[in-house]
Design brief:
By secondary structure, this protein is α/β, with parallel strands linked by helices. The protein has 6 helices and 8 strands, in the order βαβαβαββαβαβαβ. It has an 8-stranded parallel barrel with strand order 1-2-3-4-5-6-7-8. Strand 2, helix 2 and strand 3 form a beta-alpha-beta unit. InterPro entries: Aldolase_TIM, ThiamineP_synth_sf, ThiamineP_synth_TenI.
Amino acid sequence: MARCYSGFVPNRHPPLPQIWLISDARNDAALERALARLPRGSGLIYRHYHLPPADRRARFELLRRIARRFGHCVVLSGSAREARAWRADGAYAAAEKLASGPATLRLITVHSLRELAAAHRSRADAVLLSPVFPTRSHPGAASLGRVRFHLLAARAGVPAIALGGMTVHRARTLPSRKWAAIQGLAS
């Protein structure tokens, strides 16, 4: 059972945080400060693929303690089994990686209708629809835009979290109030 949700039942539309900070090498130096500034009860999706395994785990433990101090949900980018072993509140990955494993909060990244169908088969509790806007992570890549984001979100059947080029201002222009950012929250 996830700790950051009272009464959480997997695959039953949990009361997810509105704002999610996603970690990586670009925002690592600002994470402690960013976690302290986020509204209480926000979420952290911990990636940190750039670190060797032991360092990645140590950094996770530190950030998890800080996040918990502010009442934030902590989700590990990895399998459901890894998320349980690391005492995370859930797992974040592509649908294929979360298709099996123990019951836990499952956040699945989605870029298309095909991936949305795969997310449903993988028991997604929420989907991160991406990229909504042009993003520094993928310069020149096509983005969903507001209309396509809305159409995918309407078909999601689970909470949709906007990701990609997100800022506070852009989040206010979308029908979904749930959003995530890498650099947009850590600067």
